[in-house]
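Hey, I'm writing a tutorial for new members on how sequence and structure tokens pair up, and I'd like a real worked example in the thread rather than a made-up one. If someone can provide the structure for the chain below, I'll link this post from the tutorial.
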Amino acid sequence: MKLESITLRQLRLPLVHFFETSFSRTYERKIIVVEVAGEGASGWGEVTAGEHPFYNEEWTDSAWAIVRDYVAPRVLGRELRSAEDVAPLAEHIRGHRMARGAVETAVWDLEARLAGKPLWEHIGGGERKEIPCGVSIGIQDSVEQLIEKIQTELDAGYQRIKMKIKPGWDVDVVARVRERFPNIRLMADANSAYTLADAAHLKQLDRFYLMMIEQPLAHDDIIDHAALQAKLDTPICLDECIRSARHAEQAIRLNAGKIINIKLGRVGGFREAKRVHDAAQAAGIPVWCGGMLEAGIGRAHNIALSTLANFTLPGDVSASKRYWTRDIIAPPVETTDRGTILVRDDPGFGYPLDLEYLEQVTERRETIRL
């Protein structure tokens, strides 16, 4: 298999409702989608970086340059035995895993289409054909607004609620939520908003029997998380600090957390995501699929990833309509009244692109060839 061209498209998509974390509030997304062409077909990937370098060091403009100037020259025209070959060709590029991963996932999609297989089957998934879904709810303008949104998502059937927290919006807010919803599966996501000095404060969350608290400490820290986990009954879930299977193995050895969130972009694509999955599975650590406000391509890739055996916890893979009035795939991703997504069997990532809408929301485009 040889890649003949890579086309970048930057899309502008307004969110249905703003999304706020401990570090920013987002009203619209600028998303890069990647089309790789070769052997008479195309495969598609999505850059999951945000508009600013707040979640990690990547952002939309940096990803465009990395794919165009560094990843594309290393993969175009090369004889690829399989999609497994893509990541090693670009792995000496330090960081920028979301940019690299967008090309890598697009090649997996292309290879699946050439083989006439659904992507989930091609990556070795298929443990389940129905994905259990949770939702991530950002910081709201009031606790009442948060409770109302939680009720809406529960009414839609979602199986787990994740609420964002930060200093000043944490223990008291979780207490209000737990008082209103005493029996739901609830977790809190801190997005690195605390330090180890906050251990006593975070310890107060133990009384709310949360499923987990996600990445409470620094985005690049494992050691302090191990110290914090020893003080907490609540399981720590590691997110930002797990960028590779090696990081996962180190965190497991240190008992830095009891759960791992796997995001395709954060680890650089399917090849490394599967390695993180396997390392966690071997250690008895459950994983789940995190979300990055993806459009339809990235969302469909997350569905495929979630069919691997150790994705035993509901992920942040929810319906398109929670984020977009119209998605770039048609039909959009939909959930059942059981709070699940049915896995499709179409070749590749499984959903037709809405090419008309894709053109409407494209702000810039560039094709790289040899």
